[in-house]
Structures are given as C-alpha cells and as structure tokens.
Amino acid sequence: MTLLNSLLIWPDRPLPSLLVLLVIAMPFMYAARHPVHALVRRLFRAFENPLRLASRWLFDVANRLRTRNREVLFAHGGREAKLVIDREFERVTLLVQRDLEGYPALQRKIMDEITRIEEDYKKSGEVPPPPPEWVTAIQAIAAIKATGDGVVEDILAAIRDPLDKIYNRVVAEYRAGYQERHGLLKRALPSWRSLGQTMSQVERGITGLHQSAVKIDSTVQKPEGIFSRGAKTEDSLTASASAQFFISCPVMLVAIGGAYVNYKLISLPMSAMVGGGDYITETLSAAQVSSMVIILFETLMGLFLMETMRFTNLFPLGNLTEKMRRRMMWASLSILLVLAGFEVALAIMRDTIIASDVALKQSLADATTAAASSGWVTRIPTFGQMVLGFTLPFALAFVAIPLEHFVNTGRIVLGALLVMAVRGGAISLRVAASLVREAGKILVVAYDVCIFAPLAVERWVAKAWDHTPELDKASGQGAA
Amino acid sequence: MLVAALAWFAAGCGPQASHSQAIYMLVDTSGTYAKEVGKAELVIRYILGNLNPGDTFAVGRVKSRSFSEKDIVAKVSLSKDPLQANAQKKAFSEQIAKFSKATSGNQGSRYTDITGGVLQAAEFLNEAGARRKTIVIFSDMQEDLDQQTVRDFPIKLNGIGLVALNVTKLSADNMDPRRYLERIERWERKARTAGATDWRVVNDMEHLERVFEKRG
C-alpha cells in the first residue's frame, strides 16, 4: 500500500492518478510490446509444457496399465474357463466310468435277452400240422345230401361220430398249443421289461453325455473368445470379475464377523493361559494377541485344507506329489481338529471364569441373593459356546473360497479403478495446461488493452499507408 | 502342545509393556475416625472387584507411627490366572473383614501419622514395579504427630497418584470451614511438591469409580 501510495501522483485520488500513470506508461509499454508478449508466452509455455508432458506420461501409464490389466483379465478368464472345462471333463469321465464301463456286460445282457425273446417268439409262432389227406374224402361224403334213406343215414352217422371225436381232439390239441404259446409269450414279458429298463439306462447315460458335450461346447467357446482377445469377451470378463468381487466382499465381511465372534469367545479364557495382565503393545494384551494368532492359524489351516482338497488354487502346490498332497491335507485337518477341540476347552474355561467372577462379586457385595440353580437349562449357554467353539474353526476354513475370488477379482477391479484414476489425473493435467495457455493469451490481450491508444494509432497509420499508393496510382493514371 | 507353544510365542514376542496397577490404601485408625473402618471395608471390596489379574493391592493402617512393615494389614499380588486371582481376592476380602472387626471394637490410636503411612506406601508401590501407582488415603487428613516423630522433611512421590477418600469435616471445620479448605490445600501442595502425578479428593462414596479415573 505504501509502495502504491508513493507511485500515485495524488495519493488521495487513486483512480485519476492511476489513469495518468497509465497514460504516461503507455508509450513505453507500446515500445516494449513485442518483448513483453514473448515473455508472457514463454513464461506460460514454461508451465504449460510440463503439464502437457505429465499428462501425456499419465496417459501412457494408463494405457500400459490397461494393457497389463487386459492380460491379467484374459489370463484369469482363461484359467477360470480351463477349470470349468476340466471339471466338466471330470464329470464326463466319471459318467463314462460309471455307465459306459459296464457297456460290454450291458450289451451282452441285451443280446442274451434279445436271443431269448427271439427263440420264444419262434416257438410261439409254430402252427399245427396241416389236416391229413382223408379230410378231403370225408368232405366229399359229408357233401352227400340226406335223402331219407335209412342205410345212408346210418352210414353218415357212423362217419359223423368218429369225425366229431377227431374234431374235438384236434380242437383240444389246438387249444393246448395256443396255451403253450401264450405261456411262452408270458415268459418273455419280464425279458421285454428288463430290456426296456436297460435301454432306458443306456438312454440316460447317453443323454447325460450329450448334455455334458453341449456344456463343454458352450464352455469351449469362451476360451476361443479369450484367445481371440475380443472386446466383447473383455467386457463380459470384466463384468463377471466385478460381480464376483462384489459378491465375495460381503461374504468376506460375514467371515470377519465370524472370526470376531470366535475371538471374543476365546480371548477371556486365553488370559488364564498366557497371563491376564501381560501387554504386548500399548493397547493389546497377550491374551488378545494369542487369540488372534489362534484364529489366524485356524484360517491358515483352513486355507491349506481347501488348497490340498483342490477347492482353491491360491498356492503353487503343483510341484507336490499326490501322496504329499494327501499328507498335507490330513495334517491340516488334524491341526484344525486339535484347534477346534482347544476352543471347546476354552469355552468351558470361559464359563468357569465368568461364574467365578460372578461369585466373587456377589461375595464382595455381600449379596444375599441366592445363586442360580445349576440345572441343565443354565448349562445351555455353555453347550452353545462349546458347539460354536468347535464349528467356527471349520466354518472359517471355508473362507478360503471367497478369499480366492476376492484376491483374483480384486486385482482386476482395483486395476480398472487405478486406470480410471490415472486417466482422470491425465485429463486434469491437460485441462490445467489448456487453462495456463488460455491465461497467457488473456494476459497478452489484457496488455494490448492497456495500450489501446498507440495500437489504434498504429492501425490507423497502417491503413493510411496501405491506401496511399493506390490513390497515387489512381491519380497517375488519370493524368496520363 | 502346538497351540500352547503358539500362544507362548505370541505372549513372548515383542516388548512387553506393563499395564498392571498397584494400589496402597491407607486406613486411618486413629481417634474417632476408627469408627469409619466399616466404610473403608466397603471401599476395599469395591477396589478388589475392580482389580485385574497381575495387579497389586495392599492395605495399611494409619496410627501414631505408621512407617513400619507391621502396619501393612494385608497385601496381595494378583496372579495372571483370572481364576487364581479371584481366589486371592476372596482370601484378601476375608482378611480385611477380620481386620475391620478387630479395629471397629478398639479405641483409636492417640496420634495420626499420615506422612509415615504415605512414605511406607510409596516404598511398597515403588517395589511393586507397576505402571500405575496410587495411594488411597481413607482419612480426615488431620495429621497429629507426637514430639518424637519427625516428618517435616521433603518426601518423594514421583509417579504416584494420591486420592483422599472420605475426608470428613471435623467439628472445628464446621466452625471455620477455612480450616478444612486449608488442610486439603496443604496436602495437595505437599503431594505436588513431592512429585505426585495426581491429587484428588473423593468424598462421595457413591462415586468410587473416580478412584480409578485416568487423567491427562
């Protein structure tokens, strides 16, 4: 303020003073116009260029990150698809082993049944022998008309009676034959049914195989898309990874809640084991830390168990032999069982400590209230704690599955977010560079505004200079 | 075995900070104040109920001369095991009940050596090696020494907090309240000069939790 005051011609009237100063400075400013413009441009370029460079570098980083994320995404998608196909092939193998392995025996059974049915059919198809030659003679005699002659009547009756007997016998034989054939067909009925069942079984097996083949076909299309690195596949994989990430997040939160309940269950009785008044850090007691270690150890064993049971694929256990893997699995399960048993013991200890505390406080307060009866109802919380103590370690073991998804998909989601953040930074820097450039231009224009009078004179002189030769030329032509 | 090893490892690793507290309660058994021992017993029970495994607690009496080991009525260093600690608290409580019964029937001592008791308490607390050390003085804070007893020298109470409990007003205080206020101020000055971390007076027996309040 004092500096400004010293510059002012009339300190009590700043505006007129400044105007006069501007008028005085105007010729000098006009003279210095080009260097000042150059100075302003260079100065602002000095800010603008680094901003542009930084922005370009950030765009490059974002592109590299995106490429890397893409690779990770396709690798993850490929691995997932491979696992799905592996599982499907495993199912097919099991199906083939279960159903098709018995196909030779099944085929033999079918063939036997078909042969038996065929034989029975052939037997049932046998017709009675054709009538003997004398039947024709009898037919001729039977055609003789009864004339009322007694001799003829007697002869015809003598012929008719044996014929009737013969007819009855033949009919009886015929019926017996049919009965035998019906018996044969009846005997073939279970074979037909058995054959029908066998055929249904075969059909089921074939249908299952067909369904698996269709599923494998559809699953194989996914790796094809992954290998071709298509944009559609990329979008679908990103969406799938994001969905898995957001599903695994609440599951992990639930697991953390379970771990916290477990921690609360064992932290009090743990003080009886490691000492109640020992502190490892300023706020964490040894009992609390020990409880956390136990829970983390249970989770770790759960991870190993899930890994060795091939439910998850978090660690590179490919170099382990099958025998070693099985040993690891049993070791993890045994340790988990021991820890679960340990938690059951701690649950009982917790109950005892709480009961002891209550009894002490009652005796200190000289309470006359009678102690609660120790019936089975009062034992329910203890049993509940014991059951919780035993089951929670095993429940924690299953955290490995959402954890795997959380880790795998978290890399993709966080990578995408990082790319967005870097791009956002790059855009911000570019906007800042543009603003700096425009600010420089505005300053140049503002400088010109300050020296508007000399500039107006310059424009007027320039215009006059441009018009003068034309006028001279025009007047010269007129004279000629 | 594995779990035990793990737990011991967890407990053993890293610097172990002591969070235990040691409390020394001085119970005035001089003059007419000996009648207040019943109240003191209630306070002791309250403190016992609030102690944690690993804490140390002692009760000493204030009589004509109190700077002696014999004046410690009961002392306990609680086990780290909560169950054992509870058993110790119960035994301590029974010991105090006996002391209360024995004292309430007796006539109080002629003189009151609070400074001697405080010196004894400070010595005990410094040996306990606890993080928080508190001397609770259950007295009217009226010191009365015989001619042979020497207590007019600077004392050291560095790192120890002092709580004056149930500072009853004497009949002389009732006539001139300035005496009471001056007595309290003198003790506060004495405690601060000795390097005590805290000084407070709790007269409301309904708010004994103030004994355990942390300041600063």
Describe this structure in words.
The complex is a heterodimer of chains A (480) and B (216). Helix content of chain A is 85%, strand content 0%. Chain A contains twelve helices and one strand. The longest helix of chain B has 24 residues, at 82-105. Chain B has helices at residues 2-12, 37-50, 82-105, 114-128, 171-175, 177-193; strands at residues 17-18, 21-28, 56-62, 72-77, 132-138, 160-165, 198-202. Chain B is of the alpha/beta class and 216 residues long. The chains are: A mainly alpha (480), B alpha/beta (216). Chain A binds chain B through residues 268, 270-282, 285-286, 289-290, 293-294, 297, 335, 338-339, 342, 352-353, 356-357, 359-361, 363-366, and chain B through 2-4, 6-11, 13-20, 45-46, 48-49, 52-55, 78, 80-83, 85-86, 89-90, 93.
Q: Care to give the gist of this entry?
A:
The complex is a heterodimer of chains A (480) and B (216). Chain A is mostly helical and 480 residues long.
Please write out the topology.
The complex is a heterodimer of chains A (480) and B (216).
Chain A: H1 2-7, H2 14-31, H3 33-99, H4 103-124, H5 134-142, H6 150-227, H7 231-274, E1 278-279, H8 286-308, H9 322-364, H10 380-397, H11 400-450, H12 452-479
Helix pairs in contact in A: 3-6, 3-7, 3-11, 4-6, 7-8, 7-9, 7-10, 7-11, 8-9, 8-10, 9-10
Chain B: H1 2-12, E1 17-18, E2 21-28, H2 37-50, E3 56-62, E4 72-77, H3 82-105, H4 114-128, E5 132-138, E6 160-165, H5 171-175, H6 177-193, E7 198-202
Parallel strand pairs in B: 2-3, 2-5, 5-6, 6-7
Antiparallel strand pairs in B: 3-4
Helix pairs in contact in B: 2-3
The rough form of chain A would be described as elongated
Determine the structural class of chain A based on helices, strands and strand pairing.
mainly alpha
- The largest beta-sheet of chain B arranges its strands as 4-3-2-5-6-7
Radius of gyration of chain B: 18 Å
Number of E strands of chain A: 1
Into which percentage range does the β-strand content of chain A fall? under 5%
Q: Which two chains have the most extensive interface, and how many residues on each?
A: A-B, 36 and 35 residues
Binned, the helix content of chain B reads: 25-40%
Largest sheet report of chain B: 6 strands, mixed
**Strand fraction band of chain B?**
15-25%
The run of helices and strands of chain B is HEEHEEHHEEHHE
